Amino acid sequence: MASNESNKLRIIVVGGGIAGLAAAAVLRQRHEVLVYERDPASAPERGAGLGIGPNGSRMLKKAFHFRPEHVKATVCAGSRTYDKEGNL
Description:
2 strands, 11% strand
């Protein structure tokens, strides 16, 4: 019978954005994962925000046992999306 170690895959995730890091975190639970990021910036700009919609929240809860009360967050009552010309 094969050991757990021999069943592990060696996986490369290209991109250290939110999706790449989330994928790496889930994959790392059972496999060896390496993340490559091209952007030399070591940290995102301060004050940047991140909006997570209902589907994203469900994924975080399921994959990471995420609980909103464990982070500093503000519930968004609504949003508007504008194009590059400023039209709603």
